[in-house]
């Protein structure tokens, strides 16, 4: 016999299901007004410093069909690379947003401020990125990934450097469509499958 | 304040399998390729903070919140309560919990739900609260009904309440479902059984808690939640090689 490890185990996940919007985005499904203020309506407030950008995209299944029921959450640093809650953070950036695939087209839109590079514990610097968390019916545990940007220097990013198959790096990089406009498509499975993270 | 270390890596073995042919929708929505595992960094170790000012007095009372207290929802009145802890058994304080559920007849107030059970005009089906200083939370609601769903020929969801938790960092984010002790449909549910260990599935089944039930008012069910913890040693911030 040995001493016991006094650790608890994480609660197992379950799918968010098709009606996740009731709980997390009541307005999306016509239940607005139940709360005075919903959570994660926008990651920025008026006066947020930095470049305002819009990222559009979709979440496709293994057949290439865009999910109409996906719900996404984002978390990010401000334009200076400081996370909300940290010293010196931009008060105009809450950093957190909830957004859903359109019920008809499957397209989502995230309007936010472009984050700055973030310092890592080791002293290294991560290229500007937005963390994503994706849930839907059929997704049994929320999927983590990141949005990087085509027009930033991603060459020294420690996470991107860990991706063995170099063409897969592209799955994490938003394509620039025009000034402040990006496209980021997520593929859950199959050809061009997005790199999902376990961090 | 202690400089917390990285998040303890997630033990995927306790979680549901992403791909499960018995839950048909998972077949085309589960990644084929392995996840990229790395030590967490600031993007995962920080997270949104929600103040008490945003939470209304009725937000955790699903019996009354849809009508703003004007009329109670139909159904068996229950208290859902418990603690949110992390893997190191520390209470997770002031963290946002959100729940959503079907009404007593098994119908959701969602534009995509067309089940023939009627909507309850007095029930919205969502609630939220912040845990207190001990990580404790409570919701007052009605017991949700079981309902059929299109999967295999005759699949039914057991009674369940969906639960969303943040913790204090984005890497702790979790959505799960609470089931009810004694529900015979749990054994037949392909979503519940995406968790392959019976011992782990049992951890999602809330026991009847008579001690916290209120006589002549509601029954209580206890549902504790554990989120990922942080590694804390004296050696986290040394330079490499030291």
From TrEMBL, chain A:
**Which molecular function GO terms apply here?**
ferric iron binding; protocatechuate 3,4-dioxygenase activity
Q: Name one Pfam family in it.
A: Dioxygenase_C
Q: What class of enzyme is it?
A: oxidoreductase
* EC annotation from Swiss-Prot or TrEMBL: 1.13.11.3
Keywords in alphabetical order, please: Dioxygenase, Oxidoreductase
Q: Does the keyword Iron-sulfur apply?
A: no
Record-linked NCBIfam families: protocat_alph
For this chain, the family text in UniProt reads:
Belongs to the intradiol ring-cleavage dioxygenase family.
Protein name as it appears in the record: Protocatechuate 3,4-dioxygenase subunit alpha
The root-end lineage is: Bacteria, Pseudomonadati, Pseudomonadota, Alphaproteobacteria, Rhodobacterales
From TrEMBL, chain B:
- MF (Gene Ontology): ferric iron binding; protocatechuate 3,4-dioxygenase activity
Per UniProt, residues of the Protocatechuate 3,4-dioxygenase beta subunit N-terminal domain are: 9-39
Cross-referenced SUPFAM superfamilies, in alphabetical order? Aromatic compound dioxygenase (SSF49482)
Q: Which key words are in the record?
A: Dioxygenase, Oxidoreductase
Per the UniProt entry, the Enzyme Commission number(s) are 1.13.11.3
Which residue stretches, if any, does this entry annotate as coiled coil?
none
Task: Write out the GO biological process terms.
Answer: 3,4-dihydroxybenzoate catabolic process
Highest taxon of the lineage = Bacteria
Q: The Intradiol ring-cleavage dioxygenases domain covers which part of the protein?
A: 46-229
Against Pfam families, the record matches this protein to: Dioxygenase_C, PCDO_beta_N
The family annotation for this protein states: Belongs to the intradiol ring-cleavage dioxygenase family.
Q: What is the name listed in the Swiss-Prot or TrEMBL entry for this protein? A: Protocatechuate 3,4-dioxygenase subunit beta
Organism of derivation: Paenirhodobacter ferrireducens
């Amino acid at each position: 016999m040995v001493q016991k490890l006094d650790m608890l185990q994480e609660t197992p996940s379950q799918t968010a299901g098709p009606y996740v919007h009731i709980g997390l985005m009541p307005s999306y499904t016509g239940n607005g007004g139940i709360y005075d203020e919903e959570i994660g309506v926008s990651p920025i407030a008026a006066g947020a410093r930095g470049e305002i950008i819009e990222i559009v995209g979709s979440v496709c299944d293994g057949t290439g069909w865009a999910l109409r029921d996906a719900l996404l959450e984002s978390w990010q640093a401000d334009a200076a690379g400081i996370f909300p809650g940290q010293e010196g953070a931009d008060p105009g950036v809450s950093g957190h947003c909830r957004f859903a695939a359109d019920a008809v087209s499957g397209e989502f839109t995230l309007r936010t401020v472009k984050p700055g590079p973030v310092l890592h514990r080791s002293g290294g610097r991560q290229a500007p990125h937005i963390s994503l968390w994706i849930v839907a019916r059929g997704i049994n545990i929320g999927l983590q990934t990141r949005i990087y940007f085509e027009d930033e220097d991603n060459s020294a990013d420690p996470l991107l450097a860990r991706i063995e198959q170099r063409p897969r790096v592209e799955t994490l990089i938003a394509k620039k469509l025009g000034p402040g406009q990006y496209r980021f498509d997520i593929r859950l499975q199959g050809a061009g499958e997005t790199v999902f993270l376990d961090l | 304040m202690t400089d917390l270390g990285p998040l303890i890596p997630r033990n995927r073995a306790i979680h549901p399998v992403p791909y499960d042919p018995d839950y048909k929708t998972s077949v085309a929505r589960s990644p084929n390729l392995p996840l990229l595992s790395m030590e967490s960094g600031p993007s995962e170790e920080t997270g949104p903070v929600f103040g008490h000012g945003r939470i209304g007095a009725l937000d955790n009372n699903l019996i009354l919140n849809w009508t703003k207290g004007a009329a109670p929802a139909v159904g068996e009145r229950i208290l859902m309560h418990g603690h949110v802890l992390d893997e190191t058994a520390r209470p997770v304080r002031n963290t946002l919990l959100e729940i959503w559920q079907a009404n007593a007849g098994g119908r959701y107030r969602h534009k995509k739900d067309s089940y023939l059970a009627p909507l309850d005009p007095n029930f919205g089906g969502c609630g939220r609260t912040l845990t207190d200083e001990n990580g404790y939370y409570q919701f007052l609601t009605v017991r949700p009904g079981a309902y059929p769903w299109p999967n295999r020929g005759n699949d039914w969801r057991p009674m369940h309440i969906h639960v969303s938790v943040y913790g204090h960092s984005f890497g702790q984010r979790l959505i799960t479902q609470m089931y009810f002790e004694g529900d015979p449909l749990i054994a037949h549910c392909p979503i519940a059984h995406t968790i392959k260990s019976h011992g782990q599935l049992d951890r999602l089944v809330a026991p009847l808690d008579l001690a916290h039930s209120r006589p002549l008012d509601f029954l209580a069910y206890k549902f504790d939640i554990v989120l990922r913890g942080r590694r804390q040693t004296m050696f986290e911030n040394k330079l490499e090689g030291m």
